[in-house]
Task: structure prediction
Amino acid sequence: MKASKKLAKRQTRRRFRVRNSVRKSANGRPRLSIFRSNKHIYAQIIDDVQGVTLASASTAEKDLGGTGSYHGNCDAASRIGKAIAERAIEKGVKEVIFDRGEYKYHGRVQALANAAREGGLEF
Result:
């Protein structure tokens, strides 16, 4: 098996392991899920009971992208964290559970989480 295929398999396993443990401990709270690519970072708040996305934000949006062509840094992640917190509070969501996916809680993921906490979300 190629190394890239092994890596993808491990990431998928890790993602499902984290996501299943998050869903078990959710107690009806929506899930703040993130996706991190090399250029952008995306966040969305998902209600798993109804299967609906309540709010979303990403650096691919023109008003949140900021200046420059690269949006995959910690500054951009904190902008997205603040934006997702504002949009969630507008929808009446104050408590969420954080789903980091297959990513370590470090760098951009941590910056997004801290900014969302500062924005008023509790998790």
User: Anything to note?
Assistant: Residues 20 and 99 are 10 Å apart (CA to CA). The first strand starts at residue 31 and ends at 36. The mean pLDDT is 92. The chain is about 45% helix and 20% strand.
